[in-house]
Amino acid sequence: MKAIQSYKTIPFIFFISTLLFNSCSTGKVYIDKTESFAVKNESIKHIISINPNFILPATLNAENSPVISSRDALWFYESLKNNAKKNEIHLQIEGAAETIEGFDSNYFNYLAPLKREILKVLNLQDFSDVNDELPSTKMIQKHKNGLVISSHYSHLAEKYGTPYFALQGISYIPKTETGNSEIILAATIPTSDLSFVTANVETVYYTIIVDVSLSQIVYKEFRIIKTNNLQKNFDAIADDSFSLISK
Amino acid sequence: MKVIKTIYQLSIFVAILFFCSNLTFAQLAEDYHPIKLKGEIPSDFLKRIKGDVQLKYENSLRLNSVQKEQFRVGTEYILRDIFQQGNIYFNDPMTDYVRKVGDNLLYGTDLANDITFFVSRFNVTNATTWQDGTVIVNIGLIACLENEAQLAFALAHEISHYIQQHPYLQYGRFVKKQQVENNSNVFVQNTDRTLNYELEADSIAINLLKKAKYNYNEGSKVLRIVRREYERDAISFVRYLSSDKFEIKEINLCKPISYQDYMENESVSSKSILSLDIRQRKLIKRLSSVEYQVSLKNYILAKDLFKKIQSIARFELVEQTFLSSNYLRSIYEALSLLNDFPKNKYLHIKVSENLYYINSYNDLSIIDRIFFDQKKIEDEVYADFCCFINKLTKEDMRKMVFGFVQQQYQNYPSDERMLIIMAKTVEMVYDMEYAKSYYEKYVKLYVDGEHFLMAKKKLEQ
After folding, report:
1. How many CA within 13 A on the CB side of residue B416?
2. What is the pLDDT of residue B103?
3. Where are the domains of chain B?
4. Interface of B with A in 368-407 (CB under 8 A)
5. Share of chain B above pLDDT 90, in %
């Protein structure tokens, strides 16, 4: 029984970094969607965004390590909702930590397990290690079928009035220029390892959409954000992202 | 007259308790429904989601304000993450029970308002403490314990970590070490004092148990359990997984030498085993110096209540390992429970469901990704089972899975869960044409079913 247990069980961020840093270094967008998503895009009017992740370095300490902050996410939620609306998508955020909105027994019985399921499937069924096709600056790939999630989430489509559920967030990945791959990322670090996070990181915005009625991940988007003022410039990024989803 | 009335009411109350307890076991004998969280979310739970934590410690290591802030933000972030991801139970019988045992330990101390106990869905045989007073006990630990005093020891150990400020000291010493190394470019001797903290927590835990009148001798057994050194009922998967479609034969099994190879791996943490070994020896020595008191108890609460909670934790372990895609462990835990509940429908169906997913990963040729416990297995039968699954050819795996699922479907033809597993397995092993009738049956029978939409879409394709 250790005083502090390492919770490094979500290698999701490593998955993102594998996808992106096999090829990219600046301002990259990688999109992967299923053919069915492209065909049915007209019906994407409503997405449930589960517990969006927002984590940024707030200040640098004496060792040049960022003090991680997950506060001030309210503007991020607002920007997501406003830009979705601009593209005629109703984005319903469930499980927003800062406002405690959407945390009810339904969230814990259905949405939180769905989020864990998506993260797990992204990791377990990732074929990036066997598929060395590298994304270009802006790459959109289409596949016949997406990664498969368990079918017992299909009833959520009726419960929430839409089959589309998304994981969205802003997080870190290590910079590639340094070749430094040892950085432990914000989403996976235990308390005792916080000092491992160096300032040498890049910011990533991601959206992963699952169609629970098909039990498939139908859309994946990852983009590196290069800006000194994220809050100011994020609207344009979110607008571009939702316009691609609604196209 | 009043006394008779009171005795009568009391006897009714006792009878109700008796039947409640037995009713639960009777239900578990037949079926199990995994815990669904319900009711209002408790304020101590919401507080951790909101990141509203206050760390209590004396800054003995003289951390600067940035380091202190980083410790606070880090603790807040990780707790938020654990709670937001739905890893913690609330308004459930396990948390309720753990808190009652915790209350017994904290009674009469000024810590009652500082420490809050939670139960997590994690399967690791462990518990954790945070400097804000959060103590999280994993279902993996509750499932293995043998009595209430053992749970009390585990909780007392975690309380001791909090009292001694071990999370803070661990973080602080790590930061200081980094600081020295960065400034001087000199390698600093390992300052990992984890073992010292554990020994200190064991020692203080005995005092807490003694004060609460728990049998502190059970403490050394907890360490044995954490080391997985305890007797489990015999588990036989060979007969259970065989069917008329596929009979498991000697040739399918791994020779002892194979599973030895499977088990003995550099990743089996020898450091952790050594640490537990030292702890156990020191604890036994410490216990021998404590004057034994006859009044010490293994149970302060009802014994049946512990048994019920332990059974729930074991069933939850089957469910949670399944949800984490640790299908092999889920089957293994189910097989273990089947010794106690041989007719439990949930267990038979869950084994079928696990097998379906194992086969689907095998078909994708990525079965290696679901061997989560490889390199950490210390249980021979489990190692043997993992080795057997790993050794099966794709064709044999399909035959075995289909044979087993079909057999269970014959046993439970109208069960919603079994019907969809049958449909999906037939589609996977044969094709949609064969599976169609099962999906049709599901759509007809379970309009409100969890898989209804998926089944309907399959038929429309």
Report:
1. 13
2. 96
3. 1-30, 34-234+269-322
4. 369-370
5. 57
Distance CA A214, CA A43 (A): 14
E strands, chain A, are 29-34, 46-50, 53-54, 56-60, 66-69, 90-94, 138-143, 164-174, 201-211, 216-225
Cα A150 to Cα B74: distance, rounded to the nearest angstrom: 33
DSSP codes of every residue in A40-70: TGGG--EEEEES-EE-EEEEE-TTSPEEEE-
Q: Which two tokens stand for residue A61?
A: 């300490």
Main-chain phi, psi angles of B46, to 5 degrees: -60, -35
Distance from CA of B26 to the nearest CA of A (A): 26
Query: Tokens 């057997």 — which residue?
Result: B388
Per-domain boundaries in chain A: 12-246
Residues in chain B: 461
Place of tokens 């707030």: A58
Predicted complex ipTM = 0.84
Task: Please give the average per-residue pLDDT across B315-327, as a whole number.
Answer: 95
Residues B182, A154: C-beta atoms closer than 8 Å: no
Tokens 């001087």 belong to residue: B184
Q: How many angstroms separate the CA of residue B336 from the nearest CA in chain A?
A: 24
Q: Which residues pair with A209 in a beta bridge?
A: A166, A219
Contact A191 B167 (CB under 8 A): yes
